[in-house]
Amino acid sequence: MPLQTGLDSSYVRLRDESWAKAAALNGRNVARVVPPGFPVQDREVVGELNQDSGFLVDPDPRPAAEAVASAFFTAVQNNADALRARFAVRDAGSPRAGSRPRALPRPAGT
């Protein structure tokens, strides 16, 4: 069964009009993750494609975020040291060779 909905996950506003036109010609909907109340300013051609067609689908991200939140937090807690080592924030200013990364605060209870 062919995919009926495409996902443009890079931006809330569709940046590539040609891609949007091709998706519309293929009879697909395009989903973009837009938090409720987030202001979206579509380009004119995208608005015309969406007018009365339901071409764009804006699912609420909260149910998906809530579904994975517990597993995500557990994974972060279980891998905190490795994550700090890999993604530590350096002190403000230009990074210098040999400068020490600033440790991120540990979550309460760890």
UniProtKB/TrEMBL annotation:
Residues 91-110 are annotated as: Disordered. It comes from the Bacteria. This is DUF6236 family protein. It comes from Streptomyces virginiae.
